[in-house]
Automatic annotation (TrEMBL):
InterPro entries noted in UniProt: Beta-barrel_TonB (IPR000531), Beta-barrel_TonB_sf (IPR036942), Plug_dom (IPR012910), Plug_dom_sf (IPR037066), TonB-dep_rcpt-like (IPR039426)
PROSITE patterns: TONB_DEPENDENT_REC_3 (PS52016)
Domain TonB-dependent receptor-like beta-barrel residue range list: 216-601
Subcellular location: Cell outer membrane
Family the UniProt entry places it in: Belongs to the TonB-dependent receptor family.
One term of GO molecular function: siderophore uptake transmembrane transporter activity
Residue ranges of every copy of the TonB-dependent receptor plug domain listed in the record: 61-163
Pfam families linked to this entry: Plug, TonB_dep_Rec_b-barrel
Gene Ontology CC: one annotated term: cell outer membrane
Full protein name: TonB-dependent receptor
Top-level taxon of the source organism: Bacteria
Length: 634
């Protein structure tokens, strides 16, 4: 079935001839007003531009925040999004294994559910546990923007440590495009991927694609079989109006091997995810949008369980330029969550929000951004999240920025309504949520410098944050001699401070050097200030890329080597060890581009490191894979 689908997708690309139109806007552009963009040019394709930091297009160097942008790398077409995210400054990846396993991303020492994930600007975090399955990120994404620091004043709940905005490809194509990729590697893994885009008319186009991944896994019962496919329709009926309709579906089934100490050789899991969205934009920066995101997983063991949530989001945004130096953005949002969860029940949540963003440029190269958001939820107290940030260009290539913001994480369905009773060796363990929980509150200050030249880019920043009302499941009381009762409560406090350094340099348009270093001290705000589990203090990433070098006509050579160092990290409170050891992971890929085709050889964990990011869950050892990619533009 899958091979038939790929064949259909590939053959669908016909050959109407049309020119490819591109536009280049210099990185020095500070702010884009309504109507300044060409009608056919999507804002997130602009070189050096970001949209997540202020909800409107802004030059990356002029954004008053620490930002990283991940774009498709032709040398590593099937490197999953989780690995790409872990190579950015401030990020730490926790995993339970290889392809298809649970992967969680921490930013700036925060909990994984304190990171907000957006799909084309709309939230997709699970209402059940606040997380997001990184396996659902399609490799066909146009780019991923990571904004570090509090962003609840822009996006609301869960944007405590940062925002990860997955921006899908604009389906408007002026010329047909087709891409197919196949990769085969260790642990009997295979990846098939196909994408087709084509114009339907001068004002409309369509894209569709599918990805299939399968692996036998490096441990007993760690196999995975997953598919991910999408369909997009784009229309521009008038010069200043654009509409986009998108549907994405994810399905997988996999083993749940458990930890080394407590294996589960027969436990299985199935996952389904569906994302539907519609967006109508006017002059790029004003829009109305609707999305529906469903998440369901079934776990099969001695006792079966079901976890299902359906989240509906409606958002509207309007931007107005009062004069060239003053822009105002206002918006409203509504969210409804429906659920059917074992041990939780079928609760519903409803949420309303309104926000205001004011951008002022009183002097050339001096930008003030103030924003505030009001969130009202039926399950917890209303929240007001303010922020203020400044960016100033000292010289042509050097910018200074500083910011202060407040943010919050909302209690999840599990936090509010969970109730279960388990019996182990004659003792009853009762776990209960708490419908009186308050949101976790955070305040953060940041200051930094940004350097941007033709060949060199860099960022250096310092931040300090404090979080209160942390939701903790460690409050335990014996009700009776044979019963232990655990209830969620707001009892935790943390302090986090750190330094982040990012640098990139290109030599002779052939070699690119990238480096980032993160120092992050995350501690509990209690006596002795103990460190938080799974939060390494030092992380460094580096890469060397030899861009496609012409060898002979129609033959180019490329090579990339990248490596990561992660410091010792404290293990979990119930783990039998105090710390997980430091590790270094290195990888490389060798690529040959032959006309429209590319063949590559990739080795991950090149030096066969034996390491864990969560106790009892060894990560894959050295794996080798071969792949081929074919791209056609007509």
């Amino acid at each position: 079935m899958l091979f038939s689908l790929i064949a259909v997708l590939f053959i669908t690309a016909t050959n109407p001839d049309s020119a490819v139109v591109s536009a280049v806007i210099p990185d020095s552009t500070i702010l884009l007003k309504s109507g300044e963009l060409k009608d056919s040019l999507p804002v997130y394709r602009l070189k050096g531009m970001v949209v997540t930091a202020t909800r409107t297009p802004l030059a990356e160097r002029s954004a008053p925040a620490s930002v990283s942008v991940i774009e498709p790398d032709p040398l590593t077409p099937n490197l999953d999004a989780a690995n790409r995210l872990s190579q950015t400054a401030g990020a730490s990846l926790g995993g339970n294994g290889g392809i298809g396993s649970v992967l969680s991303l921490s930013i700036r020492g925060a909990a994984t559910n304190q990171v907000l994930y957006l799909l084309d600007g709309l939230p997709v975090n699970s209402a059940q546990n606040g997380s997001y399955d990184l396996n659902r990120i399609l490799s066909q994404a146009q780019r991923i923007e990571i904004v570090r620091g509090p962003a609840s004043s822009l996006y609301g709940a869960n944007a405590v440590a940062g925002v990860v905005n997955i921006i899908t490809k604009d389906s408007k194509q002026l010329k047909p495009y087709s891409r197919i990729n196949f990769e085969k590697g260790g642990y009997s893994s295979q990846v098939w991927e196909a994408t087709v885009s084509r114009p339907l008319a001068k004002w409309a186009s369509a894209s569709m694609g599918a990805t299939w991944k399968k692996t036998g896994g490096q441990r007993v019962n760690s196999d995975y079989d997953g598919t991910n496919y999408f369909l997009e329709l784009f229309a521009q009926p008038y010069s200043r109006i654009e509409t986009k309709l998108r549907y994405q579906e994810y399905k997988s089934q996999n083993g749940v091997p458990g930890s080394v100490d407590y294996p589960s050789p027969t436990k299985r899991q199935k996952d389904w995810g569906k994302d539907f969205s519609f967006k109508a934009s006017y002059d790029q920066n004003s829009f109305v949008a609707l999305s529906r995101n469903s998440i369901e997983n079934m776990i099969y063991s001695t006792v079966d369980s079901r976890n299902y949530t359906l989240q509906t989001n409606v958002e509207g945004q309007y931007q107005h330029s009062w004069m060239p130096q003053i822009n105002t953005t206002v918006g409203v949002g509504y969210q409804m969550v429906e659920s059917d969860i074992t041990d939780v029940g079928q609760p519903e949540l409803k949420h309303k929000a309104a926000f205001l963003i004011q951008q002022v440029e009183p002097l050339k190269d001096l930008l003030f951004v103030g924003s505030a958001r009001y969130d009202k939820d039926f399950a917890y107290q209303r929240q007001i999240s303010p922020s203020l940030s400044i960016n100033y260009g000292f010289f042509e290539y050097l910018n200074f920025y500083t910011s202060y913001g407040q943010s919050f994480r909302a209690p999840t369905l599990n936090d509010l309504y969970w109730y279960s009773v388990d019996n182990y060796y004659g003792t009853n363990f009762v776990y209960s949520g708490n419908d009186s929980l308050l949101p976790e509150k955070n305040a953060q200050f940041e200051i930094g410098l940004k350097l941007g030249t033709i060949r060199t880019n860099g960022t250096l920043c310092f931040y300090r944050s404090k979080t209160t009302n942390l939701i903790d499941w460690g409050q335990q009381t014996f009700l009776m001699p044979d019963t232990l009762f655990t209830k969620a409560a707001n009892i935790g406090k943390t302090i986090t401070q750190g330094v982040e350094l990012q640098a990139s340099h290109t030599l002779f348009d052939m070699v690119t050097l990238d480096l980032n270093y993160t120092y992050c001290l995350a501690v509990q705000d209690t006596i002795g200030r103990p460190g938080l589990p799974f939060k390494p203090q030092h992380i460094a990433n580096g890469s060397v890329t030899i861009n496609d070098i012409q060898i002979v006509p129609d033959l180019k050579l490329g090579w990339k080597f990248w490596s990561q160092y992660s410091d010792i990290q404290k293990a979990g409170n119930w783990d039998p060890v105090d710390n997980l050891p430091a590790y270094i992971i290195s990888n490389h890929v060798l690529s040959l581009k032959i006309a429209d085709a590319r063949v590559y050889y990739k080795v991950e964990n090149l030096f066969n490191a034996n390491y864990q990011t969560r106790y009892g869950y060894p990560m894959p050892r050295r794996t080798q894979s071969f792949g081929v990619t074919l791209e056609l533009w007509d």
